[in-house]
Design goal:
4 domains, five-stranded antiparallel sheet, 21 helices, about 15% strand
Length: about 750
């Protein structure tokens, strides 16, 4: 009667002496966290309590010896080559009185819902374990490209990204790197294995004196043997249960004959490679999900339009070229004769596809590689120069390791900001030369797809030109591309609020008009794609803050109606312009010209050099601007050659003159140098700055007057901008030009080639 009660759901508490009856071989149990299920194969009963006669003489030593109850359990795991049982034992120390069953280290499956707070029935919880076990078998069958969202089991790191499940390579790597702390589970056969048991001792207590106390070990061992023998089928052609006998991965019967009782105790832990952080980790199978669309899915066509590659603002010719090359590469690689094909006179060379994407930051280079990987349903393996080391030996080893993994998993490899390993070699820098040479050699034999991105194309070594299959330039965003990216981000914000059932109102027309106006008026401070995304997120955060009444505690109110208008974008744009103006003033030029000056990439902006912060446009009403800087503090800015100068009436006072320098550099002359005075056709440098400007006129000056004017004002500056005689070429003369001023650009006589 008592045994029936212990085996029923009514038993909520148990005494230590009754644990042997609570668990029996074949029972399904769950650990305290509810993550792993086990099957009991043996239980050691508590030994008869006794006091050793040798301890009766010591003071205070009359406490009896104790022994725990040990529950031997098994679960099914995989080590990359073998799938089979792993033995675990749980010791429950002796306790007084009764203890809740759910507080034990392992508890029967029927109490799992009580322990975990599950509202569902036992059958549904067990059904979840069965589904998870089927997923485990599917995952270990081959390397799997999946998505993981949750904490890792070893480092407790939050991960939300793509992973590759590969038991074999993970365990090989950890066995090599951590010889004393292996991840490899100890899988082995349980047939004929004797479980450890406690030794029997004679009892000297008064109640048992002169009586024979029988040891329970024989009964325990017999009960375990009988259960294990029941899992061995009588037919020789049938496989024993996975709970007692392992199977090889390559065997055709890997999952043959598996029942629900086997799926329940499958491991919840898998080994995977986190592509974003490039680290191996122990992952929870529950947090894994498939990212590939099922074949024949009717909604796949609609999903195509939502993929990153199709939303990428890029020329259609570039898109088609990329798609054709990548498709051809995978088609050739997956063909039956791929291993015997030879594309180079040297066997093994030239099987890879190397694509170079270059251009200014934030124009879609990295997103292109990510979009291609998503479109072809391939993992994106992204590495940086910092992951490869700084010496030729370390770089070579890291490249071979990463390239081997990428090729094994069919990844699209992305080497972002590949400037260090692709830089020009020089006779003085032996370390860099070694890095470049190693990269060139490894690149030659890589058989996969490699995207290289850089915004420093001018620093590339010429040896890479012939090793790159296609090089695509990503220009600065046009006004049309800018508007499209704004529209894309606005749509993404709407979709995000719609999924959360939140209210969002966006003044899209005004925002787009402001974006186009900003693009036209601030040529050297235009936003790239990444900055547009950041601006939209910042503006949305400001709008949510405003919706909460400016209270940071109310910003989390999901019922607040958020209104995103051009006001928030003005605030974001003003902060960005102040930052860019500071950089321009620091470098005395804008970023586009600075990159060109350093020989990193060609210029793409051809207007004025630096935009100022003042000058309100039609969409800047109410916006506060910084005062304009004194023109004498600004750097000389290039502009197109002009023969028109801005002069002032006698009452106007000081101003700057926009003039063209002969060497291509131009800008605003200091206001104290060039000033206008009535009655003269040239500028008078003696005019003081005390008079206030009242009227502005446009007076045409011929090129000779420009030259003569600068010569009279500052002879040293005039000599600085003379073109050497060896660089002079005849030019069409300006009417009335003075032929005696050779070399000064704009005098109509000579100019630079």
């Amino acid at each position: 009667m008592k045994m029936e009660w212990l085996r029923s759901d009514k038993c909520q508490k148990v005494a230590f002496a009754d644990l042997w009856y609570l668990f029996k071989p074949g029972d399904e149990v769950v650990d305290q966290g509810g993550r792993q299920a086990y099957r009991v194969i043996g239980v050691t009963s508590p030994s008869h309590q006794f006091i050793s006669p040798y301890r009766t003489f010591g003071a205070g030593s009359n406490k009896p010896e104790t022994s725990p109850v040990i529950i031997f359990c098994v679960y099914i795991d995989f080590d990359g080559k073998i799938l089979g049982p792993v033995l675990r034992q749980f010791a429950i120390p002796r306790f007084d009185g009764e203890k809740a069953v759910t507080s034990l280290r392992v508890c029967p499956m029927r109490f799992a819902e009580v322990r975990l707070g599950e509202d569902s029935s036992q059958g549904s919880f067990r059904g979840k374990l069965i589904s998870r076990g089927r997923q485990f078998i599917n995952v270990i069958s081959s390397q799997k490209h999946m998505h993981y969202s949750g904490l890792t089991l070893d480092s407790r790191e939050q991960v939300d990204g793509q992973v590759v499940i590969d038991f074999e390579r993970a365990l090989e790597t950890k066995d090599r790197d951590q010889k004393n702390m292996t991840w490899r589970p100890k899988i082995g056969s349980l047939l004929g294995v004797d479980l450890p048991h406690l030794k029997a001792r004679e009892c000297y207590e008064f109640c048992c004196r002169q009586e024979q106390v029988f040891a329970d070990q024989w009964a325990e061992v017999k009960r375990t043997e009988n259960y294990c023998n029941s899992l061995v089928p009588e037919e020789r052609w049938r496989e024993p249960s996975l709970a007692i006998e392992p199977r090889a991965k390559g065997a055709p019967s890997l999952d043959r004959g598996l029942g629900e009782e086997d799926y329940v105790i499958m491991s919840y832990r898998v080994f995977g490679f986190i592509l974003r952080s490039r680290k191996w980790a122990k992952l929870n199978l529950t947090h894994l999900s498939y990212i590939r669309r099922p074949r024949g899915d009717t909604s796949a066509g609609d999903q195509q339009q939502d993929m990153a590659f199709h939303q990428l603002v890029l020329e259609e010719e570039h898109k088609n070229m990329l798609l054709s090359l990548v498709a051809q590469h995978y088609r050739d690689k997956e063909s039956p004769t791929a291993g015997n094909e030879q594309v180079d006179i040297v066997r093994g060379k030239g099987k890879g596809l190397i694509i170079l994407l270059h251009g200014a930051p934030g124009v879609g280079k990295t997103t292109t590689a990510e979009g291609v990987a998503e479109l072809f349903e391939k993992p994106l393996f992204q590495i940086t120069c910092g992951d490869l080391g700084s010496t030729a030996e370390h770089v070579e080893r890291a490249l071979e390791t990463n390239f081997a993994l990428a090729n094994r998993w069919g990844c699209i490899l992305l080497l972002d900001e590949a400037d260090v390993f692709l830089a020009k070699r020089s006779p003085q820098d032996f370390i860099r030369n070694g890095l470049v040479s190693v990269f060139l050699r490894v690149l030659e034999y890589y058989a996969g797809i490699l995207f290289l991105t850089t915004n420093r194309i001018g620093d590339f070594d010429e040896a890479f030109s012939s090793r790159i299959h296609i090089s695509l330039h990503y220009p600065q965003l046009t006004d049309k591309a800018t508007a499209e990216i704004f529209q894309l981000n606005i749509r993404l914000m709407r979709d995000r609020f719609r999924r959360k059932n939140r209210r969002l109102t966006i003044d899209e027309d005004e925002i787009l008009a402001y974006a186009l106006d900003y693009w036209k008026r601030y040529e050297t401070m235009r936003w790239n794609g990444r900055q547009i995304r950041n601006a939209c997120q910042t503006a949305l955060a400001l709008a949510e803050f405003d919706a909460g009444g400016g209270n940071h505690e109310e910003i989390l109110d999901p019922n607040a109606e958020v209104k995103l208008s051009v006001t928030q974008f003005r605030t974001v744009a003003k902060a960005y312009r102040e930052f860019m103006y500071y950089l321009n003033k620091l470098y005395k030029t804008d970023q586009d010209r600075l990159a060109h000056k350093r020989g990193l990439r060609a210029r793409e902006l051809h207007g004025k050099e630096m935009d100022t912060l003042d000058g309100k446009g039609p969409f800047d009403e109410g916006e506060t601007h910084l005062p304009s800087q004194n023109l004498s503090e600004q750097h000389q800015s290039p502009s197109r050659l002009t023969s028109t100068a801005t002069v002032m009436s006698p009452q106007m006072g000081s101003t700057g003159l926009a003039a063209e320098y002969p060497n291509g550099l131009a800008g605003n002359y200091p206001s104290a140098m060039l000033q206008a005075q009535a009655g003269y056709g040239f500028l008078n440098p003696t005019m003081g700055p005390q008079q206030q400007p009242q009227q502005q006129q446009q007076v045409p000056l011929n090129p000779h007057q420009n030259a003569q004017m600068l010569h009279n004002i500052n002879p040293a500056l005039y000599q600085q901008f003379l073109v050497p005689q060896s660089q002079m070429q005849p030019a069409t003369g300006f009417p009335g030009a003075m032929q005696g001023q050779p070399g000064f650009m704009g005098d109509g006589t000579h100019h630079k080639p």
